[in-house]
Amino acid sequence: MKKILLSLLLLFSATLLYAQNNDVEMADQMRSSGKIYVVIATIVIIFIGLAIYLFTIDKRLKKIEREN
Amino acid sequence: MKFIYKSWWKLLAVVMVIYTLIAGLLLHVPALPILHETIRNLYFHVPMWMAMLVIFSISVFYSIQYLRTGKEEYDLIAVESVNTGVVFFIFGLVTGMIWAKYTWGDFWSNDPKQNSAAIAFLLYCAYLVLRNSIDEEQKRGKISAVYNIFAFPIMIVLIFILPRLTDSLHPGNGGNPAFGKYDLDSRMRIVLYPAFIAWPLIAVWIATLRYRIRLIENKRNTIE
Q: Any signal peptide, and if so, which residues (chain A) (predicted)?
């Protein structure tokens, strides 16, 4: 019994060691689960919003320039 | 100067930035220790400095033109370019600080790159203060143009040359590898180069908007 327990324990510790033996950690999992797209959507929406805002300022300015 | 009223290049800049936002987060990047995914900051942090550099170059060009011709519009272009450039300067500094926190361990570790960037920032703040402290228009234009022409090379030396000669931790400085080395698979270039074109265009766009507002203000002031 003791032998079996010990061997199991050693086996378990070996798997633990194995789990830590990763390469450089990257966001691969996040991408595979598809959630990076959420972030991209957020950033792109914000940027498109800002761009539209800039275009409207541009338009209004053109109007004022014509009046001047 | 007709092109500042055209919108095709503004749309181009917007489309290119959107492309870098998507491709910059999705495409493959080399897996490197310490950097991890922050290597993607290359697509967003470095273009801020590129935009700043382009806009300050435009400013110096028009400062020289102002000294040569004495046309007031050139002075206005120079000022509004610096005003816009300073904003991108702040973006560059802040994004760099966030990156430094998670790679170097501290927001501000007195790295030569950080310190000299801060000094260069003060240099341009001094330009704006100097300008606003002079009331007489021609005097203001001339003094600030001369200051601007001298500030530009000092900024270049401070940000791009001195940190390279010292032991800065910043990639590309003090013997550290720059993106040329990360880039062994040159796939990063297909995102970085469009970003290098798009962000300066955005900066130029904002500067032209400010310049056009300034022109109207100027016209009103002279009429009154």
A: 1-19
Angle between the N-to-C axes of helices B137-156 and B72-103, in degrees from 0 to 180, rounded to the nearest 10: 30
Q: Which of A22, A57, A67 to mutate to test the interface with B (most CBs of B within 10 A)?
A: A57
Give the pTM. 0.84
Which of A31, A54, A62 would you mutate first to test chain B, the one with the most B CBs within 10 A?
A: A54
Q: Quote the number of domains for chain A.
A: 1
Q: Is the complex ipTM more than 0.95?
A: no
A61 within some domain: yes
* B206–A contact, CB cutoff 8 A: yes
| Element (DSSP H or E) covering residue B20 | helix B8-26
Q: Is there a domain that residue A1 lies in?
A: no
| Segments in chain B below pLDDT 50 | none
What is the three-class DSSP state of B174?
A: coil
For residue A63, being part of any structural domain is answered with yes
Q: Does A67 touch chain B (CB under 8 A)?
A: no
- Is B78 within 8 Å of B66 (Cβ atoms)? yes
